[in-house]
Write a structure and sequence with these properties.
By secondary structure, this protein is mainly alpha-helical. The protein has helices spanning about 1-40, 45-55, 65-70, 80-90, 105-130; strands at about 65, 95, 100-105. It has a domain at about 45-130: Winged helix-like DNA-binding domain superfamily/Winged helix DNA-binding domain (Arc Repressor Mutant, subunit A), CATH 1.10.10.10. The chain has a three-stranded antiparallel beta sheet. Helix 2 crosses helix 4 (about 80-90). The chain is elongated. About 15% of the residues are buried.
Length: about 130
């Protein structure tokens, strides 16, 4: 009888452990989805993509605020510029280092992903026209 109770306790502990692991995995998935949503929101407009691309084109040296504003402001308003910069920074895509804006590691990953998407779109249209 004692052996059955011991096995039952072991089973209950195993089930509890699996439940905890599932809950942790779900929390991690939700956290990742929240990050994905924040990134997509930060890049949800042409203005944001213009700012992001200008920072990306500045290479590893980065670009100072004045130069970035001069490049971007002919295309968007001051309000759009500041709102997009805030969104990109909060999403962790760009950061300011030594007075210059640079892409973060996450920003570089997203930049490469956008390039893959662009290539896919070009291929799609190339295939459709033939």
């Amino acid at each position: 009888m004692g052996k059955n109770k011991s096995n039952s306790n072991l089973m209950a502990a195993a089930v509890e452990q699996l439940t905890i692991e599932r809950q942790q995995q779900e929390l991690l998935t939700m956290s990742n989805m929240k990050s994905s949503v924040q990134i997509l929101k930060a890049l949800n407009s042409l203005e944001a993509l213009v700012v992001f691309q200008r920072v990306a084109n500045s290479c590893m040296n980065g670009i100072d605020s004045t130069s970035l504003a001069q490049l971007v402001l002919p295309h968007i308003t001051h309000k759009q510029y500041y709102m997009r910069m805030t969104g990109l920074k909060q999403a962790g895509l760009i950061s300011k280092t030594s007075g210059k804006y640079v892409l973060t590691s996450l920003g570089l990953v997203i930049l490469n992903s956008l390039r893959i998407i662009d290539k896919g779109i070009m291929l799609k249209w190339g295939v459709k026209s033939t």
